[in-house]
Specification:
Two copies of one chain form a homodimer. Chain A is α+β, with helices and mostly antiparallel strands and 358 residues long. Chain A contains 14 helices and ten strands. A five-stranded antiparallel beta sheet of chain A has the order 7-3-10-9-8, with helices on both faces. A three-stranded antiparallel beta sheet of chain A has the order 4-5-6. In chain A, α1 crosses α4. At the A-B interface, β4, β5 and α12 of A face β4, β5 and α12 of B. The structure holds a DNA duplex (30 and 30 nucleotides).
DNA sequence: TGTTAGCACTCTCATTCTTTGAGTGCTAGC
DNA sequence: GCTAGCACTCAAAGAATGAGAGTGCTAACA
């Protein structure tokens, strides 16, 4: 994948060509590059170089007498080159800083705020998916009885609240619920949600005995936990700004846009697409690299927010291959950094985290 | 607004013409109507009638030698005629029946389910907005302390849960929170949320004294209540299936679709649009009747779900003027009926609602 | 008086042909 | 190795044409 066979001059020409194309959406022509004084070479020499770059697979012509557009390989070269050189509207993003620091915010709320802001700043459709709630640590479990034979189950995690409704067969009084919550907290505190579910499934009988007094609850809790995971698989995806796609000239034709827009409405598909692993925290999948006909003209930029090396949430930005890579790369880097920062804060002991009362 | 000046024959021709156009999107021509044996008249006679209908403002020609399409007046005639004669995929809708009966479901969850289902059944973009939470009755108020100087505030209503996070200056212990919740419940139970806010604002000092022991909380609760109303103004709108608009031939041009699609992403605008009052439970606003240039080619079908005559939630279906009025009318009627049915259930005392324990 | 057959007229849409010009590749000379 | 110059290519836009779908109008008929 290295571009060793490119002379320094070719690299420079190619970079400028792609940059130009990203900005203007007009095929790259020798004349235009000369008149923009992007080079001191003559248009004829440039033509030779562009011709060679085409033969090497970085560019392609739509027809004999047209300018050239980048191929996936061309974009890939460009992305690898700008990698550490990104611009972004950081000021616009600053506003979500405090959202990361507010831990009690509902997790589905959190991903909304993040997606809204990134979509606003980048001007592309943005998807955020909550991928690994099973890796979140349990801080406390609370059960709140409601009228009508139901109760609300709350799980506090360092990243925010998870909640779910429990169906009961009888009404329990408030104190029983509080006590049950306390027992469950003592039992599962410091485990991850995944570990808790594992533990419940493997040591079912053992725990049931241990929880003895609240065994009645326990059956419902188990049930609620399973459906909670399901629930978050569905609710844990939020997409914003789909129609921003239509601003781009490549989507002036409804037929072209339809497939992508429909995908942007399909939460389940989005989830698998965005959470799919990629090397590095931030990665771009360009056109055919996505192995999906509907997306052959798209690029998806992905970032994974991790705790202890495991992905908790994934952010995806979807646009045409001709997207603003530098800006997007900057925005995603900001998010990942902020996420890691609050992560550190937490490990070192956040001074706002006072005495607990569970 | 009456169509008294129309002969029976003209009414029949007009109705069939509009019905045809809604189904096929092809301008109505005398030839086509004859060959579909929708009439025993000759095409020439039909042409005379269509001509008259055009002069009366029910139809219009795009150009001299083209067929005719309905005007807003034409659609309006059609809608008024089918009013009580609607077809809908009721089986598909049946599935949401139980959602209405589950009271503890989070209200923002409820509107999602409803919008998803209606959009699926009608195949049009659907918006549901929670318009009148201030008219909901308070069943109980609960405060749940969390770590990190915050608490969760829950308000139970006959329609579902409302929740919000409270910022605290100090950590309160669990028992204080429960007690405070109980006191607040006793104080505000059976009031509507609107009455509670009123009461808090006018009798601020009085209540503060009354709540004496929990006065510390009270300031935060007030704050939380205000932001709760704001929060639901923003979160209380859910839109589904925007891209379904693109299935319709009138939106094959991106420029045409853009405005409406953008509107479908703007929650605040949607809210005002959908909640706007209309006569009757179900109403259609056709094209220019909407007084909005962006929507001049759209129809919006609205339904208001009411409790004691006041609108709590509004459902809107957005499509081209050439939308399937009968199907949509049926779907909306179903929703309104179901809503009223559970309302009644509740007034008569739901047998599932057991002894309370607040 | 209402209905209809027949015909002239209109206007869009698809097709074909032409022209224009932007852009390339190649070659010969610097 | 670079570049001026020229022949060549091809898409895109415009003009011309014909077909056909549909109308309005008129005159004749029941």
């Amino acid at each position: 994948m290295s571009d060793i066979d490119l002379s320094e001059r070719k690299k420079q020409i190619l970079f400028q060509a792609v940059e130009d194309y990203i900005e203007n959406a007009n095929p790259i022509t020798s004349g235009a590059m000369v008149s923009k004084s992007e080079t001191t070479l003559s248009s004829a020499t440039l033509r030779n170089e562009l011709n060679t770059l085409e033969q090497m697979g970085y560019l392609k012509q739509l027809h004999t007498s047209s300018g050239r557009v980048p191929t996936t390989k061309g974009y890939r070269f460009f992305v690898n080159t700008i990698k550490d050189n990104c611009k972004a509207d950081l000021e616009g993003l600053m506003k979500i800083k405090n959202v990361f620091e507010t831990r009690t915010i509902n997790l589905t709320e959190l991903i909304k705020v993040v997606a809204d802001k990134i979509s606003e700043v980048t001007d592309y459709p943005t998807v955020v998916s909550l991928g690994g709630i099973d890796k979140l640590e349990i801080l406390s479990i609370k059960i709140i009885p409601l009228m009508t034979y139901q109760a609300l189950m709350l799980i506090e995690t360092p990243r925010g609240l998870l909640n779910n409704t429990l169906e009961l067969q009888q009404n329990f009084d408030e104190q029983s619920c509080i006590d049950a919550g306390r027992v469950l907290t003592n039992k599962f505190k410091s485990m991850t949600i995944g570990q808790m579910i594992d533990s419940i499934e493997t040591k079912h009988q053992e725990i049931l005995t241990e929880l003895n007094e609240y065994a009645g609850f326990f059956e419902y809790v188990l049930q609620a936990l399973v459906s909670l995971t399901k629930q978050y698989a569905k609710d844990g995806v939020y997409s914003k700004g789909a129609t921003k796609l239509l601003k781009n000239p490549e989507y002036q034709n409804v037929e072209q846009a339809k497939d992508v827009l429909r995908l942007l409405e399909d939460k389940e598909e989005l989830k698998t697409l965005i959470e799919e692993d990629s090397d590095g925290d931030i990665a771009f999948s360009i056109g055919d690299e996505l192995n999906d006909d509907r997306l052959s003209e798209c690029t998806i930029a992905k970032a994974h927010c991790k705790i202890n090396g495991e992905s908790i949430a994934s952010v995806g930005i979807i646009g045409p291959k001709r997207m603003d890579y530098a800006k997007i790369s900057g925005a995603l880097k900001f998010i990942v950094d902020e996420f890691n920062k609050t992560d550190l804060l937490e490990l070192n002991g956040d001074n706002k985290k006072g005495d607990k009362n569970g």
